[in-house]
Batch of 3 targets.
Target 1
Amino acid sequence: MRRTFRTVAAGAVCSVALAALTAVPAQAQQPGHRAPHWELKDTGATGVRFRGLSAVSRDTAWVAGTGGTVLRTTDGGASWRNVSPPGAGALQFRDIEAFDARRAVVLAIGEGEASRVYRTDDGGTTWTESFHNTDTKAFYDCLTFFDRRHGLAMSDPVDGKFRILSTGDGGRSWKVLPSDGMPTALDGEAGFAASGQCLVASGPSDVWLATGGGARARVLHSADRGLTWTATDTPVPAGDPAKGVFALAFRDRTHGLAVGGDYRPDQASPQAAAHTPDGGSTWQPAATPPPAYRSGAAWLPHSRTAALAVGPTGTDLTTDGGRTWRTVDTGSYDTVDCTADLGCWAAGEQGRVARLER
């Protein structure tokens, strides 16, 4: 499940691999040493853009994208099974949360009835539609889970406030939470369905929601599974429908990252990253941010300071908790996810899916 790092027995092995991943570039130039790198996996889906990604392990991952497409691999990307829900060809899947190789929940985004949630318990052989939005004012962007049963999904503001769906049975059924504890949205404020990371959870009850489009890019935090929220401004530029925080990543309930910028390719994205040491109560700008818009982020497992950020123009690495970033790859990816056994995956346009190799 995304951003929940399970304990593994091979901790010593992972520590060695992590040291290689975060090594200085000069080490990669030594004879016989190849730096960690993204290795593309052939999905056969060149016409699909995968913005939804859920890494289960180095062997198992799920991706979801345009044309109602869901793919799954259980052999490290050597082969992919098309497990798309029947009749979903007109839908845009932007987020997927997998619990293991058989159970997953996927979100379709869009206005009104385009927003839907499906769940599978048999590896995608069959799917059940568990939520079908009928409110024309709602537009769902992202979903997240605290554990295998409890999760949330978020919609752009309805009647002036972000709308939150809740499930207590693993996504089999959903209910709209009361809006009393939700702050009023700014004019033009919304979420970005760019990577499935505009709503993220850490631990049993903490969840964060990223925004943009308004006068300020904000992060909203709830410590009670979405019942009450507080909003905090970030230094990421906003003030335009194309600008804001696009993705969040929390390695625990206090240490988090925010990345974003301006998604238009002809526009610069200065100060497109920030970090927090206090659960989102305050945000500091990165001293050396990524050089361009970034839409996805993930902490590297078994590290307190290393994380990746991805976007259409490349991948950046931080080894100091988000204070400084350096570009380590120039390939196009929209989202990234890592697992406890160092199974870091990335996905994006033209059917691109890659796994970090070392």
Target 2
Amino acid sequence: MNTPALHRKAFLLLLVLVTLAFGWILWPFYGAVFWGAILALLFAPLNRRILRRWPGRRNTAALATLIICLVIVILPLALVATSLITEASLVYQRIKSGEWNVGVYARQIFDALPGWFVQLLDRFGMGNFQALQERLTSVAGDVSQYAATQAVAIGSNTLNFVVAFGVMLYLLFFLVRDGAMLSAMVRRAIPLDEAHKRNLIGKFATVVRATVKGNVVVAITQGVLGGIAFWVLGIQGALLWGALMAFLSLLPAVGAALVWGPVAVYYLATGALVQGFGLIAYGVFVIGLVDNVLRPILVGKDTKMPDWVVLISTLGGMAIFGINGFVIGPAIAALFIATWDIFASTDEAATEPEVQPGRTSPRR
């Protein structure tokens, strides 16, 4: 019974159990490990460039890469996050005190609706404005309370955040320094054909880089443009609405319009036609143009995935993994497509009729 086959099965079982146990240990710092690996992948080309200038000084090059990452990515995000926490708390206080009453705004829109549209709403059972007003007020209160609660939770969990942030930076340094060696080890350990491994790993790295860089650039651009528009129109909380547009812009085609669209409708319904049509034109031809021009160039061109696959995988990834899903979803979709392409090409090659020596291949 003590055979080599049994030894291999026992070892494979041990390998699976140890790997699951290690993943269980890392799970509390899943976000820190995930973004440490993503940032290491994004800044690996910069680290290689620095190493060419300082050959043999791997620690110095990794430290320089880490400092650059801190300056251009992490510190600006920390400053924006701090401002957003303050802004979200102010919005919650205004809604709670009644200074901002969503029901009043909804009443103004409802009163401005033409009679035929009100009759149409009645036919579909949506003409009861009182219930709609209460529902909108309740939703606005819940959303603002959730945002304020999250802000307070972030403040109360400062120690956890600092620990996770430290883990991410520590891990980022070593992943940047030893990333090439770790990648080679993983590649050797994967029990696949070398060409298949090269294809899958290359596809994964390309999709992650394109998704993060492309979506982040599009999100920042749309958020800044939307925030400027709201600031010019004198809308309170322009920074918060701009950040919300940046977050929603992770959803291709429809994201930022979920914020500026209702505001434009409110302006039109209340008779502010210049502001309403101006915001619609700005949203379609400026904010929307960013999505229609930059996203295909930065995301679709490199990932080589259809727009509908990117949209569905992004939505599904964010529904399961939260904010991290906008990277995980498209990466899984890309690996799914690449794996099936490899399977189809391998199966086609296996069924291709062999050509005997001295004979020509059969005509099709």
Target 3
Amino acid sequence: MFFWLYEHLAAGVHGHIPVFNLVRYITFRTIMSLFTAQVIVVAMGSRFIRWMQAKQGRGQPIRAEGIQRHITEKAGTPTMGGVMILAGLFGGTLLWGDLSNVYIWAVLVVTAGYGLLGFLDDYSKVTKHSTDGISGKMRLFLEALIAMAAIALIILFAAKPPEDPSLLTSVAFPLVKNAVVNLSWFYLLFGACVIVGAANAVNFTDGLDGLATVPVMIAASAYGMIAYLVGNFIFANYLQLHFVPGVGEIAIYCAAMIGAGLGFLWYNAPPAKIFMGDTGSLALGGGIGAAAVATRQEIILVIIGGLFVAETLSVIIQVAWFKRTGKRIFLMAPIHHHFEKLGWSESTVVIRFWIVSIMLALLGLATLKLR
């Protein structure tokens, strides 16, 4: 909004008040987006938590077959804290982003759509006092539709990269210079798999206080940097990356995600006063996936989001092996519960997973230069 005001209303003012020129720069708006999102979440935190406690009563249902300590220590903690995160995320993005930029609207479509699905899932669990929410197949179908709608928006309305107009429907490979495969409209399916996979991977990870929040912020930091680089012709050319006009605005969205995550962590740090629930985890994971698609750096999401991939694979392997043999590979899945069963304290699991997430993000960023 402020960028729009700068362009349309401040033409006669910024010449006399030079400070208004700061709004032109993505770097300045990125910093302000982060700060704004954090302030919004922190400001609404205590009142929102008290209101949710009054509305939800017994709070988020805890799996009976889960960690016994969780049943006694976490019972009664309200969920749907993702509403706080989304308020900050949308506030920071809409106030400081370029609202004429199609990438901004594409990632917000995914975030809002997945946030709504997560909210309905959380609402179903709380009202039924059960860990079962919306049907898994129905949720995946709706997630795929939302993802494909956002991708179609990018393909149809985003500015075509001058060096390769087909890049909007192509998959670029890291480590190999100029290696792209044009999928044409089949890219809708590929991109949807990336976004849906990211959303559900973060959802699996969200099982301990602060476990998903910080890795999401780390991934958002990495993709915010990537968006800035590939959206700048000079930097993209220097690093031999594919230049994507206009995608730099995604950095403002990623900054808002970081700020919202910081604000939420104030209340979600152990012992958590509120859980983000599916409202937050699906929206944040979908947003990360959408940022990967927008920047044409989908494949390195496997590295940057490697922690989320490991959590998801642990569930898939556990279920598949149990169906085949009747035995379990892990003591409990997702894998963070396996380490709890081994005797690790919750804070140990969380902090060590944060460290792993940081190292994977740095490794993913390193691939940008290894070409």
